[in-house]
Amino acid sequence: MSNVAYISLENGTDSNSINWKTIVNKRIPVTAWIPHYTLATFFQDIVAGFTVGLTEIPQAIAYAIVAGLPPQYGLYSGLLDCIVYFIFGTCKDVNIGPTAIMALMVQPHVEKLGPDMAVLITFLSGAIIFVLGLLHLGFLVEFFSYPVIAGFTSAAAIQIGSSQIKSLLGIPGKANEFLEAWISVFKNITHISWWDSLLGVSTIILLILIKQVGRYGNRNSRPEFSTTRNILGKVLWLCSIARNAVVVIIGTLIAWILYTNGIKPFKLTGNIGKGLPTIQLPPFSTVFNNQTYSFVDMIKQYESSIAFVPLIAILEHVAIAKSFAKGKTIDATQEMIALGLCNLSGSFIRSMPVTGSFTRTAVNNASGVQTTLAGVVVTAMVLLALGFLTATFAFIPKATLAAVVICAMIHLIDYKAIITLWRTKKMDLIPFIITLLASLLVGLEYGILIGICSNILFVLHSSARPSIEIEREKFPQGDVFVVTPSRSLQFPSAEYLREKVIQDCYDPKVTVVLNGKYINNVDATVAKNFKVLADDLILREQNIIFWNFKMNVRNICKGVDQKLVDFFKDGNLQDIIEAAAPNGVPTLMVRF
Fold it and tell me: What secondary structure does DSSP assign to 541-575, as a single string?
């Protein structure tokens, strides 16, 4: 258990006073736990931060390259965000920084107008996320269903992995779209660099082996085992956790030794900007290829990305925070405020968009992190890398970074989604497949939009065609047809209900009883169709009774036609039927 309590804050105010301490603790969470911070906890956070830093540095460089940015932009993205989240974040495990999906979403805009496009959308995304948090509009992400999310993330992972195949094989040129990447690979198959291919494939194999060795080490680092076995197990576990850094160090060392001896078999990352970024305003205009673009021109280039980049950032971040909450409630509003501030502050030091990283958050959790202070340790490591290691980073082979990205994407693809959806509801496979294919073939922004629309169509179809069960029951006065829709009715299902009753419940001189037991609400369209249904049944000499309806539903129907109120009845159904059919005429009942 952590020695630092992440306090669950309630609205500790009465009607006459405001508890300012509670408000401050809620909106600046660090003030709630920092007074209880201990030296033992600090050492645990250092270990976790150091371990995450070994993962973040190579990933940050790799994701900057995925975004089409100079490598140092990835490192810039690991500076202020961790410090801001240390102050405003509520989930100790979450690591904020560059991610593969964010990199892929900004890549087309960077390619069009240069790095300033990534920095500006970081600022705009931060502002949008921050405002959405203040307005408590986090519910917007609820429109992203599991099939759509799984299809989108899987497509993004496949597209990112595909874009790295050329670097893995040493094929020259750029190809970032899924089809474009594979077409380019096959067209240039004769230009494969066998040395790059050997290094890239070997790196992938090494990453997989180190991960498996880490599992062995984790099983052997237990108190009941000998000290030597424990130490060996912990070393293997640490190597597994920091496997990205391990393979990058090995690849860089091999390249450096060969290049210092005049042998140049690999394509290298090249020079990385040295030193810390300059604090400056985000670019509200840019110059690209000797042409000046205004703020409006840049906004037009973003198209739908200006909405989807912040929404996907929120979705990634909140989902990760909930995954590692361990039974605790997550303040989604505060997390959105924190994420918005992370992006806003990052835009002043040339950062690309950031959000929660599932990979690094998992590493953070496995390393025994205790508080968000571990993020400050990560920032310190990134600062050291920018200050002293940029010359070394120039020797990182592109094939090694491509292997790191591809291995990360292998784990990002949601393989289990197909099995889960098949076992639960097979129809959900349709929006999953639509989102997956649209994202790969049309683009991520349009793909997720198409996926959401397809999912909404399924919801509307379900609303328009509610399940209606029809039974024939016997009463002393005669047979009764019982028609039972499964839920409340809204305007898409209004006409379907009327047609169903008219078609399946035809029996002259039989009264229709509509049981409103499960109807919590109706709209004006449904109420109007009740009136039309009553008129139709009366025309063919069938009576109608609305039974067990709630008062709010009656009032809505009353607004359509005052006379409709006369059809509403309460009480024992048999008594109502008897009163409606005093001469023993058979009765038709429709129950909702």
Answer: T--EEEES--HHHHHHHHHH-GGGGGGEE-S-HHH
